[in-house]
Design a protein that fits this description.
The structure holds 2 protein chains of 2 kinds. Chain A is of the alpha/beta class. Chain A has 12 helices and 14 strands. In chain A, α8 packs across α12. In chain B, 45% of the residues lie in helices and 10% in strands. Chain B is globular, with a radius of gyration of 21 Å. The chains are: A alpha/beta, B alpha/beta.
């Protein structure tokens, strides 16, 4: 066991996979000697050399497209995009190619690649450094989307993502990169993609959330635990997502709320509400509430906390659900 | 104050076989008579298939099709230099390249007829699915060639692009990465003078496309794209160089798109028929026939036989295409992921239910 934050957990997972599988190769901007802008590849360049931990020219489109070509030719590229807002430059390659290769070649070629990016606001980053764009990728056939919330999960989910035979977008919540430290096993383990985690058991209502907001939702829920006993589900994987866990929980509690940072309209919360509607309407005692970012761009640092669901808004949402 | 010339550059142009069928023996690539015949036979096969595919579209037996007419030499000559297991990254007008690379013509008709199975590469080749967005395949080729360089698998990747694609970010990124990593990649730009209606001169301010390689730190060369011998020669050199680990090459095949952009286009709207007629005089097959006749490799009997064989092969492919079992609609779902995700599984069940 190592007391690790999420950045260290990324490094641990990458180190483990580099050791385990010779075809794994890391590519990205400044990931070599510099160890990445968040230091998540710290030390790996020295340990594995320049042919396994590779600094690339500054082109997010190039990184994504090159990863596609490497993946079809037998490698397992793990590409780092420095910030989630720069993923837009990679988007064409992910949508038009990475997600389609298996289908277009009818299984002759596959694209086992991972594209990692820090995502989400809350650390006063520059604009476009903190986008919450999971829904874009979840809406892209052929991709998988993972959004962990703790160091332990980061390590297990990243290992699973790298071993997955299909392309995975791995979003790392910047806000908890260094905000949580916990015991992380040094030995190998994976957390299967598509499985949610009930991080707090409760009986009165269910909150479904992911990424950095798991921590802040749990903190909010603690504050009102004497009044409301909330079950909290950390979705962990956005696509495919663990609908069974959601439905089992809301059938038990009869009330639900989704909390996410991304804009509300067509945000992934909408999909969860639709699933509850389709599969558990009879069990529901109140409409499902969404506490989310607004349909605005994420404000610059000074106003970002006006946008990101706050403890106050989460608690207000809980009351709205409970008081219905 | 210091003022000096830091860099000057030159771009080579190569033509071995001129439009009158004369070759410069000093420039001849190492080819046997058998190679010459194969190059010729492949060009006839490509042209025969191309004509037939065009008419199949007009008859409504396949969907949109993009003619390769005029570019037979640039595709046949270059793919002929590849090893089977090398990686081909074709685009929508790479029919000629695919034919040489063993892609069954039946499958090519399937693709243009709307069947994904047409993109399946034969096992003995690595023919990547045709790229439909312009230029994106440059990066895939770079990635594959970079991987080959890293793993030392001895393979080379060859990508086909049009002049229009050289304006795309993907092309520039791929060239840039290739230069940095010395990737085992050969970039073939078939400069056919048009991207739909946009003329080459409106695509880039560069005098040649080949010179773009200079900016990325490797060699670029322009070749007469209607000269199958020159195209073969430069591609063979480039492929050998990449295989040795000596890095990428950009080859600009200077050619002409004799047909419309696609079966939905009408080039008469934007180009002068006289220009087309001038280019017809530079036809890649005519000049090869003149040369081979002169060399005693081609007579009427052989010529008729090659044409008859090609016509028969294309007919056989069309017959097979029209008898292909319809695709299993369930393939829509089963090939999205290695393991079908929960959500898709549910939709798959719903689909099957809807068919009952």
């Amino acid at each position: 066991m190592v007391l690790a934050n999420a950045v260290t957990a990324v490094t641990m997972a990458l180190r483990g996979e580099l050791k385990r599988d010779k075809s794994v190769v890391l590519i990205g901007e400044d990931i070599g000697l510099n160890g990445g802008v968040f230091r998540s590849t710290d030390g790996l360049f020295k340990e594995f050399g320049k042919d396994r931990v590779i600094d690339t020219p500054l082109s997010e489109l190039g990184i994504a497209g090159a990863a596609v070509g490497m993946a079809v030719n037998g490698m397992k590229p793990v590409a780092e995009i420095q910030f989630s807002g720069f993923l837009y430059a990679s988007f064409d390659q992910l949508v038009s190619h990475a997600g389609r290769i298996r289908g277009r070649s009818r299984g002759r070629f596959t694209c086992p690649m991972v594209i990692r990016a820090p995502a989400g606001g809350g650390i006063r980053a520059l604009e476009l450094h903190c986008e919450c764009n999971e829904a874009l990728f979840a809406h892209t056939p052929g991709l998988k989307v993972v959004y962990p919330s703790t160091p332990y999960d980061v390590k297990g989910l990243l290992a699973a993502a790298i071993r997955d035979p299909d392309p995975v977008v791995f979003l790392e919540p910047m806000r908890i990169y260094r905000a949580i430290k916990e015991e992380v096993p040094e030995e190998d383990y994976v957390i299967p993609l598509g499985k949610a985690n009930v991080v707090r058991e409760g009986t009165d209502m269910t909150i479904i959330t992911w990424g950095a907001l798991v921590k802040y939702t749990l903190e909010a829920v603690e504050k009102i635990k004497d009044k409301v006993n909330v079950e909290v589900i950390d979705l962990r994987t956005i696509y495919p997502f663990d609908v069974e866990a959601i439905i089992a929980s809301v059938k038990k509690t009869g009330r639900a709320m989704v909390v996410h940072e991304a804009p509300r309209t067509s945000g992934f919360g909408a999909e969860i509400v639709a699933q509850i509607n389709e599969k558990a309407l009879d069990s529901m005692e109140a409409p499902v509430v969404r506490v989310t970012g607004y349909d605005t761009v994420l404000p610059f640092a000074n106003l970002e906390n006006e946008y990101i669901p706050s403890e106050k808004r989460i608690i207000a949402g809980i009351h709205k659900v409970m008081d219905y | 104050m210091v003022k000096k010339v830091l860099k000057t550059f030159e771009i080579d142009y190569l033509q071995v076989l001129d439009e009158h069928g004369k070759v410069d023996e000093s420039l001849m690539p190492k080819v046997t008579d058998d190679d010459l015949k194969k190059l010729y036979e492949n060009m006839i096969l490509v042209r025969t298939f191309d004509k037939k595919a065009f008419s199949l579209q007009r008859q409504g037996r396949i969907g949109t099709y993009l003619e390769v007419r005029g570019q037979e030499a640039s595709q046949v000559g270059s793919t002929y230099a590849m090893k089977d297991k090398d990686w081909l990254f074709p685009m929508y007008r790479s029919t000629g390249a695919l034919i040489v690379r063993g892609q069954p013509m039946t499958r090519m008709l399937q693709y243009w007829g709307g069947d994904e199975r047409g993109l399946i590469s034969p096992d003995e080749f690595n023919n990547f699915p045709i790229a439909i967005p312009v230029g994106t395949q440059a990066l895939h080729a770079l990635g594959a060639g970079w991987a080959s360089k890293l793993t030392g698998d001895g393979l080379v990747s060859v990508v086909y692009l049009g002049d229009g694609a050289t304006s795309k970010e993907d092309f520039m990124s791929a060239m840039n990465f290739a230069g940095v990593y010395n990737a085992a990649t050969v970039f073939i730009v078939e400069n056919n003078q048009f991207a739909i209606s946009t003329h080459r001169d409106e695509q880039t301010g560069s005098e040649t496309i080949a010179q773009k390689a200079i900016a990325f730190g490797f060699e670029g060369i322009q070749v007469d794209g209607n000269d199958v011998l020159a195209v073969y020669k430069v591609t063979k050199d480039a492929v050998d160089k990449a295989r040795r680990g000596d890095g990428p090459t950009l080859i600009e095949c200077y050619t002409y798109r004799m047909g419309d952009h696609s079966t939905s286009d009408d080039a008469a709207r934007y180009r002068d028929q006289k220009e087309v007629e001038e280019w017809a005089k530079k036809d890649p097959i005519d000049r090869m026939e003149k040369f081979m006749t002169e060399k005693g490799l081609l007579d009427d009997t052989y010529k008729d036989k090659v044409q008859a064989d090609s016509t028969a092969a294309v007919k056989e492919a069309i017959d097979a295409y029209e008898k292909v079992e319809p695709a299993n609609p369930e393939d829509i779902f089963t090939y999205m992921y290695a393991e079908m995700p929960t959500q898709l599984k549910e939709q798959f069940e719903e689909y099957k239910e809807s068919k009952k």
